[in-house]
Amino acid sequence: MRKIIAVAVREYQAAVKTKAFLVMLVMMPVFMLGGIVFQMTMGKRVDTRDKRIAVVDCTGRLFDVLAQSAHERNTKHIFSGGTQIGPRFLLERVAPSCEDLDQVAFEMSQRVRNEAFYAFVIIPADVMTPRGTQGAPESEDDPVDDEFTGGPAAAGGVRYHSNTPTYGDVVRWLRPNVQAEIQRVRLTAAGIDPDVVETATAPVSVDNLGLVTRGQGGQIVQAQKADEIANFIAPFGLIMLMFLTVQVGAAPLISSVLEEKTQRIAEVLLGSVNPFSLMMGKLIGMVGVSLTLITIYLGGAYVAARRLGYGQYFPQHLVVWFAIETVLMVTLYGSIFIAIGSAVSDHREAQSMLMPAFIFLILPLMIWPTVVKEPLSPFSTFVSFIPPATPMLMTVRQAVPPGIPLWQPIVGAVLVLITTVGCVFLAGRIFRVGILMTGKGANLRQMLGWAFRG
Amino acid sequence: MTNDAIAIDNVSKTFGEHRAVDDLSLRVPEGSIYGFIGPNGSGKTTTLRMIMGIYYPDPGSGSIRVLGEALHGADNDAIGYLPEERGLYRKMKVRDLLRFYLELKGRREFKGPIDDWLARLDLTGWAHRKIQELSKGMAQKVQFISAVIHEPRLVILDEPFSGLDPVNADVIRDAIVDLRRKGTTVVFSTHDMSVAEKMCDYVFMIFKGRKVLDGTLDSIQRRYGHDTIRVRLDQNGAALNQLTGVERVTDFGRLQELRLADGADTQDVLTQLMQHGRVAHFEITQPSLHDIFVRIARPEPQETAGA
Questions:
Q1: Would you say domain B4-217 falls under CATH 3.40.50.300?
Q2: ipTM of the complex, rounded to two decimals
Q3: Exposed e or buried b for every residue in B260-288, given b needs 16+ CB within 10 A?
Q4: Nearest CB to A3: which of B90, B92, B104?
Q5: Residue B52 at interface with chain A, using a CB cutoff of 8 Å
Q6: Do B105 and A267 touch (CB under 8 A)?
Q7: Which tens digit of pLDDT belongs to each residue from A253-263?
Q8: Which of A108, A360, B148, B250 has a CB 3.0–4.6 Å from the CB of A120, allowing a cystine?
Q9: What pLDDT, in 10s, does the model give residues B80-129?
Q10: If one looks up domain B226-285 in CATH, what number appears?
Q11: Contacts B52 to A, Cβ<8 Å
Q12: Domain boundaries, chain B
């Protein structure tokens, strides 16, 4: 046992007492936050050059309204704290004949190609009169979607033509303005006061709330308004942390075993400890690294959440479960990584062996959104009992209201434990053979052969 | 010396099609220095690894007993092992590494032995450097310390002198002799025949997996008789292989070694030599271990022609 501990301590120190570990520790949150900040700043990197848009208004009634709205936008809406964050839309009335709109569209297209305009809008004369087939409301849809659906433009509708169909801002601005004005005209024509309609159709809010509880004094405590984002952050943060811990805590075992193998350290070590103890020592060291990691990050997250006033979203009740699940998970993957490291002869070979292992690691990351939405559905319950996925998915299900019955994480943990013990046992047999092998690495079939035939 | 530190009986080891060790039997008496020689790839390292318990002999092929016990796995605190190549964590500091190896051997006292050995091999100033900062020779010395620091009863050294300059080689040699004086059994492999000649109580040669020599240097040389003449002529002795009664000439530059054919007369050879020039040195001797090694490992010209 003392030898196992000696190996574990060395493994732990070799992993933690490196600059790489410290850098990773600091850089990981910086990268994650930095990524978000970067995306946000990049999102603002828009082209603020003016966009000249030609309008062929065959109704003769819409241009002024649109120009008014564009002016308002150009002077107010595109400024944030004094800086311009969007381009100005400069509308220009062009008045060719409205006889042959296809011909007009072609001529205007040429002018866009010659860069006289950025885009043009054709408003047919009959757009004011309601039709059965036309005017189905789709205002909330992403305009980019129907830009890409292709096909000829619906007859009788307003047509926006440009050479850059991926730029949706003009349409996004144009659509509600055109619709509002046309609706106003139509309502007036029908003898209805548009203001009455506006009042009558004012939106009603629907709030997403948790359940109401009774406080200590017996009074009813109103449910908190469920902050959907905040509710997602806890489960997401936890499984990302698990994923990271496997990446940072367990994956280096491959390098460590490879070093021992290629530098012939293994021969010296095996003269002192048996292969299984050596492997156990390495696993225990790695569990230590993982616990260090989650302690630092969870501690940091807790302090940060409290400071920022999101303390109630920090899943305190899950910390112990999370630690158990994480330890099981890193041990499970750690033993697989050790087996791989011992069976291959260089990092390149290890990479190809890692693919199947990583698929199991990434799958939970892909299905967790489904699980978080309906944590109690039969599907979510089922997948959270599949051992390699259990730690991540069970944690997700525990992290979102209403929670799950206690027996589920217990049974899940037992299943993972059994799988882990099995994995460690089989990996030990691969390790025993592989660690002393020289030359070409083993393939998966040979590895399984060592594992099951002994 | 009643006990054998190592007793190997009829052991074979096969890798795939290749028989690395073939029906080997060997006795290493306790307290002796035993030299393993043989060309590259002849089975030295495989034999040492089997003694270590890193490799198992082919099933049913025989037995190996080390320090009186049949081997179960390689872990044995009474054995120290220096593998042929490296065997050190490159990123660890010398002192930490030695401490780790001592812990692995179940020892609880660290400072004394580590300080002693570092001082002895002139590494005290490097105690807090990482292995990767050391020269090859220094790393080799650290490797040696890690094999002997826990005072094992049996030390197995695979090429302990490779990569060492003469000064360091002497330091290691003294350390090995010192171990033997304290009763430790030392088995080492080497390509340096003069080292084997000078240091080893017994020499064992393996060639193509089979034992070809085993015994004290005297007994081995006796088998080959006094069939060697070392001679130095004042002028160049290029044409010496034309002499009758001389089977082979090894030209060392300043000195030539002549191997006599069976029944050749040394007086007759001397007479012929005197006709070639002034004889500055003439010595009738037993063949050197080097010569014996080469005789075994290098195919004779006629054999090559016949093959």
A1: yes
A2: 0.79
A3: beeebeeeebeeebeebeeeeeeeeebbb
A4: B104
A5: yes
A6: no
A7: 888 888 888 88
A8: A108
A9: 999 887 788 988 999 999 999 999 888 888 888 999 999 999 999 999 99
A10: 3.30.70
A11: 267, 271
A12: 4-217, 226-285
